[in-house]
Amino acid sequence: MSSPVIVWLRRDLRLSDQPAIAEAARKGPVIPVYILDDETPRHRAMGGASRWWLHHSLESLGAALQEKGSRLILRRGRSDEVLAKLAEETGAQEVHALHHYEPWWRNAEKAVGKVLTLCLHHGNYLAPPGSVTTGSGGLYKIYTPFWRALRERMPPHDPQRRPQTIAVPSKWPESDTLPDWKLLPTTPDWAGGMRAMWEPGEKGARKRLHAFVEEASAYEGQRNLPGVEGTSMLSPHLHFGEISPAQVWHAVADAGGSVATFLGEIGWRDYAQNVILQYPDYGGRYARDPFGAFPWRTSTRDLEAWQQGRTGYPIVDAGMRQLWHTGWMHNRVRMIAASFLVKHLLIDWRAGEQWFWDTLVDADYGSNAVNWQWTAGSGVDANMFVRIMAPLTQSEKFDAAGYIREWVPELADLSDADIHDPPSGKRPKGYPDRLIEHRDARERALSAWQQAKGS
Ligand code: FAD
């Protein structure tokens, strides 16, 4: 019997269109392993909502492997050390994995490559990050030309089916048990809203995709309306690699209709990886001046009011409460809430990036950093700082009354005319006053910008 092959799983927790598993299955008995690596230095430990998702996703993958007569081995520690030990125990000669672009995963890949034969495959992006180049061979910094060039190379590959059979080793190595990792919250158990909304795992991802495909042609018209389920809600499934972007692309494109805008959004996901490949510390450092000299405020009171959805701006509060309960927030509201933190409260975007990192089920190093830097105006491709979103206008424009009623129930009895901006006489007891008036916030932000530019 040929020696076993290790498949090192990370954010690629699926069996179909998974080239590392497919290639290993062609070579010999397969040992699929997930390593809980809290030791390779990273920008920040995995957040609470992501840990919740990971638990369920691993459970689902373990069950899918069992249906094929295989198993998922769980180990904890530094990836290179764990893999070296596993190879020694099992006689495995090769490790197969998908490329990942977070700086800590690239470091871990280098470390593994020093001690073992590591075969890396592409499969988590529409095109391998780093492969979409300008005429002079450089990498794109701006989304629009990046997308134009990526679009030229589409469609992506045809998705591969899951392997028919996965050969097993003559003896399985030992595995941790999932509950021992304590990824789920206990006291308090804050995950009720997440359980109600999500089904982590490959099966749940496929269900979401099928449901979305039915409605995909309405995406263009509905995607900015937070009160309508008009987007795919595939982001955590894509983040954890329970479905590949090629699978999403083909399913949506085959459905027909006007889906170009949706496909361009999937392109943003590729773009974000293209950015962190060029700027590995993008999650912690402003990409442009004069943000290093920006007079940020430090106000624990304001930061906590934002986190808890108690800013006195209904659209912002609705978004922040949706995030806390479900681990997800509508994209339009993410933009409004993020802009509010940075421009109305003048709090450094990195405090917001950190909160999102901990509370989003789709928390993704590249996408989170790129979108925060875009909103703040500090990114390589960014909205100008001086363009300040007016939350009340946004709330009316995108028809958020129903959304606010759902997430800020104390305002539910207000009329459509009042709910976006409850007049002081009609603010229910217990709902806070605005932390700052929009006009004052705007003036303060513009003067802070002038100060930063002048320093
Ligand atoms: P759809 O509209 O159905 O889009 C399909 C897919 O395209 C998404 O699942 C996602 O993978 C990708 N996508 C869409 N918009 C973007 C975008 N702007 N940037 C990158 N990818 C995109 N998205 C994350 O996946 N992880 C994050 O940590 C994250 N942080 C964000 C922080 C801020 C401040 C903002 C403004 C946006 C952030 N986004 C992030 C992008 C976007 O809000 C979510 O991807 C989207 O809301 C997910 O919902 P959906 O799956 O229904 O999206």
From TrEMBL:
Superkingdom, taxonomy of origin: Bacteria
Chain residue ranges for the region called Disordered: 154-174
UniProt KW Flavoprotein keyword: yes
Keyword RNA-binding: no
SUPFAM superfamilies given in the database record: Cryptochrome/photolyase FAD-binding domain (SSF48173), Cryptochrome/photolyase, N-terminal domain (SSF52425)
Alphabetical keyword list: Chromophore, FAD, Flavoprotein, Lyase
Start and end residues of each Photolyase/cryptochrome alpha/beta domain: 3-126
Residue positions binding FAD: 219, 231-235, 262, 362-364
Cofactor binding, per record: Binds 1 FAD per subunit.
Gene Ontology terms for molecular function: deoxyribodipyrimidine photo-lyase activity; DNA binding; FAD binding
The protein's name: Deoxyribodipyrimidine photo-lyase
